Amino acid sequence: MKLYDGGRAPNPRRVRIFLAEKGVSVPVMPVDIMALEQKSPAVMALNPLMRVPILELDDGTALSESVAICRYFEELHPEPALMGTDAFDRANVEMWNRRMELNLGAAIGAVARHGNKGMATLEPVQVPEWADFNRGLVPGLLSWLNEELAGREFIAGSRYTIADITALCMIDFMKVTKMPIGESNQHLLRWHQSVSGRPSAKA
After folding, report:
1. CA distance linking residue 11 with residue 64, whole number of Å
2. What whole-number percentage of the chain has pLDDT above 70?
3. pTM (2 decimals)?
4. Mean pLDDT of the chain
5. What is the dihedral of CA 165, 69, 125, 169, to 10 degrees?
6. pLDDT tens, 8-63?
7. Per-residue pLDDT at 8
8. What is the DSSP string of 172-191?
9. Which CATH number fits domain 87-202: 3.40.50.620, 3.40.50.300, 3.30.420.40, 1.20.1050.10?
10. Closest CA to 57 of 10, 3, 121
């Protein structure tokens, strides 16, 4: 199998960190998304939506969407459990992971793609007003997450999970938007320092 990877983009990075936490190594095929290599015939044949990451299995079957790829490896390599350990825990991790994707990640992504001229290659029709609207949402979302982390070590509870991976990748992507975490968010800063110090964060 091989992993079609998109470099510094948040979603490919999520899969790399997940694999590093599992101790799993997969051959990587780099895809330069700023050069639009994801629109090449070879990549489109695996994922017509022209997005990475993509996991190509030995029989030619392809999986896309980062969480689906992570789910595949979770089933193959259950330990350490990064997507939950029982019915409630799995649902709780899923809830928090989706919150990191659909709330925090979506807002940060909108600012990056619509508010950064360097991203015009990926977002040919940029809507600055959409970037401004979402830029206004991010501080409140960070404050909310900070308060949640006041009572626990990690996003979904007492263990590191895929929700932490997603949150780390989304928050680190704020560098593109020049938005800070904010010094008042002490619990979030503590969490960010902790998860950034894990060896997997360098994947």
Report:
1. 11
2. 100
3. 0.96
4. 97
5. 10
6. 899 999 999 999 999 999 999 999 999 999 999 999 999 999 999 999 999 999 99
7. 87
8. HTHHHHT----TT-HHHHHH
9. 1.20.1050.10
10. 3
- Residue at token pair 């899923």: 94
Could you give the CA distance from residue 156 to residue 162 in angstroms, rounded to a whole number? 9
Q: How far is CA 82 from CA 97, 134, 203, in A?
A: 11, 29, 16
Burial of 76 (0-12, 13-18, 19+ CB in 10 A): exposed
- φ, ψ dihedrals at 55, nearest 5°: -105, 115
